[in-house]
Amino acid sequence: MTTVFDPIDLSGTQLDNRIAMAPMTRSRAFGDGLTVTDSTVEYYSQRAGAGLIITEGIQPSVTGQGYPDTPGLHSDEQVAAWRRVTDAVHAEGGTIFAQIMHAGRIGHPVLFPDGRASVAPSAVAAAGQLFTHEGPKDFLAPRELTAEEIRSVVDDFAAAARNAIAAGFDGVELHGANGYLIHQFLAPNTNLRTDEWGGPVENRIRFAVEVTKAVAAAIGAERTGLRLSPGNVYNDIAETDTEALYPALVEQLEPLGLGYLHITETNTGARDVTLALRKQFSGTFILNPVTEGPTDHRVLPLVEDGIADILAFGALFLANPDLPARLRTEGPYNTPDTASFFGGGDQGYTDYPTLSVRG
Predict the structure, then answer these.
(1) What is the Cα–Cα distance from 109 to 100, expressed in whole angstroms?
(2) Which member of 44, 67, 180, 349 is catalytic?
(3) pLDDT (tens digit per residue) in 182-209
(4) Does 180 participate in catalysis according to the annotation?
């Protein structure tokens, strides 16, 4: 019987166990040009006992930023700073993928040095507010991307992926979940376009497919993963065709030979979609399961039952850097600061309680 403590071959990369550290936004890029610092080096190296670390969301361009003090992978300084992190994780025997995240309409002009607007598939503002250094700000209507700009954003993802490899990462995960840019193209309430990127399902999945293909071509499909969150309403997303949307997307991605597909469940009804995608996708399947409270050893049978190849843990990894060892003994666990988390399941939402939730 396979357990989470068994090793796994992730498209040629050997992982010591089947426990992944889920991506969790930390907003600690305090160095010049939004570069990570010593605290980030320590944070990730402490958690190198995970079979796979997936970093916080890293913006592929200036315009991709969605929150204060989040790091990028679009400058030489940022690449050099991340190299210190990857070196430290590798020195501890760990494997680390960079999550590339373009926030799309989730952002605000105060984040950008020139006060530019955020961009998105359509000029539809998200409900709610964003925490900034100037206090909470209402989300504003983004600027709709032109067709030429969409192709440029695809190139930004590929360039950031190449930068990730230059920085020593073992691969990248594309953030197609939680209401950020790729998800905004998928959802009909945020994508009102009437061109080849909008309208029917086959058009709304086009951007996700084009980004994934571009990144796979840039660094190799075996080093490329994709995170999705079917049915997730976070960041004012409303999906009306989840059961058709995600199988259509995975059908397009299946032939690429991706390193993995990472599914984040956000509601109790998500399991049926998870099972359908698990059956459809032949590669490594990572699951961040929906749970009541932090995800702990009680979800380990999901690997034993074949529902997932790897399980991703979020909040509990913050309070327990040695989480794999604690899962093996079924605790005890340090309790995460639940004041900093809300929303269903264990998505690693952090930093600014009641103002911004992300992961």
Answers:
(1) 21
(2) 180
(3) 999 999 999 999 999 999 999 999 999 9
(4) yes
